[in-house]
Amino acid sequence: MKLDLDQIEAMDRPELARAWEGMFNTSPPGKISQRLMRHMLAFEVQCRKHGGLSATLKRQLVAVREGKTISPAVSSRLEPGARLIREWNGVSHVVDVVEGGVMWRGSKYRSLTAVAREITGAHWSGPRFFGLTS
């Protein structure tokens, strides 16, 4: 049974239960609301169509389940157009965030870590060097 989002929205409870059984090979939980069934079915349809959760997000969800603290990736906090300034050995270094990386001194780098390595000559965490993490 191939479903689309409009079909799911129009289903009544018995139709949702049949769709659930077809999608998950099990009966829906007894007291689940129709609204939640619709949301979960729609999410599953979209996952199957577009590939589901990224490996990074899956790892983060496992970490949360295990009670570990996670920090969001720097790329998710910095958008193109952001500018970072760091003084190192009396020299101010300006890094601009661009699509797919960062620019420093007219060259594009994949990561802040690569720039921090160029500036210091040693391996540094780029986010830590630029003061984005503690």
Task: Describe the structure in your own words.
The chain is of the alpha+beta class and 134 residues long. The protein has two domains: 5-52; 74-129, no CATH class. It is 47% helix and 16% strand. The chain has seven helices and four strands, in the order αααααββββαα. The protein has a four-stranded antiparallel β-sheet, with helices on one face. Strand 2 (91-98) and strand 3 (101-104) form a beta hairpin. Helix 2 runs parallel beside helix 3 (34-50). It starts with a helix and ends in a 5-residue tail after the last helix.
Describe the structure in brief:
The protein has 134 residues and is α+β, with helices and mostly antiparallel strands. Helix content is 47%, strand content 16%.
What attributes does this structure have?
134 residues; alpha+beta; 7 helices
Q: Topology of this structure?
A:
Elements: H1 5-10, H2 13-24, H3 34-50, H4 55-65, H5 74-77, E1 83-88, E2 91-98, E3 101-104, E4 107-109, H6 112-120, H7 126-129
Spatial separation of the terminal alpha carbons: 50 Å
Structural class: alpha+beta
How many separate domains make up the residues? 2
Major beta sheet, specifics?
Answer: 4 strands, antiparallel
The low-confidence runs, each spanning 5 or more residues with pLDDT under 50, are none
Number of helices: 7
Based on CA atoms alone, the radius of gyration comes out at: 23 Å
Strand order of the largest sheet: 1-2-3-4
Total strands = 4
- Overall geometry comes to elongated
What is the ordering of alpha helices and beta strands? HHHHHEEEEHH
Strand content: 15-25%
